[in-house]
Fold:
Amino acid sequence: MKHTPLTFLLLILASSFAFCQEPTPKGHPLTLTGYGFYDTHYASGSLGGGALMLDWQAAPAFCLGIGAEYASSNRISARLTGQATILTTLLQQRLTLENSYLWRHFPALNLQEFTGALQIGWYARHLNLHLGLCNRYIAELVQRNNGGQGTVFEPMNVMFAIEGWWHNSLVPNQWNIGLRWSNYNDFIIERVANWFFSAKALYSLPDSTRLYAEAGIHPVGSLNLTASYDGWFLHLGAVKPL
Structure:
């Protein structure tokens, strides 16, 4: 616990960088992403909700993003992300450095979760790789018998994501399909042994809007307490350059 402030300070100093899934088209510095989702598993039933994210391409190699999610009285989430492209090859492959901060609130449990993460990413023609570390606080726990409140700190959890795409993901395609294996998504970071497996699909409209869908399985339970794969989720949304 005594090293916690220093750890988060290092994350902040190492950041000022943001993360965008794909470069924003020229002339469109802002990109709005919205999706609805349905999530169900045996342990906690079903829930629905939606999310909005806004990305700002502040410079050719720098992007800043904000986002919020609401999940039918189960959780409310917000995040701030930042990414810099630190290397671009002749084939347009990119090496990025990403910093993100995630806040989640669970009203029924009176819990709040704060997570800071730092990642590197590699974007190639058909494969995207991400690897990083995060620190997590879980605060405002249920009062103990002595009337006090506690805080749980989880240092240095590993984050990873591997995505494979049918078409070259570095250039525009009318459609694309892919597979993803990771322990996190936009507003959830699981422990490294709790994995998400999903299939993704993208379709581009003439006005540069992209429709997308993602369906997969994921660990069940709340706050990373179990890892049995009997749950599934569905995301449906669109990405619109502004």
Notes: The helical segments are 4-13. Confidence is low (pLDDT under 50) at residues 1-25. The CA atoms of residues 192 and 218 lie 12 Å apart. The longest helix spans residues 4-13.
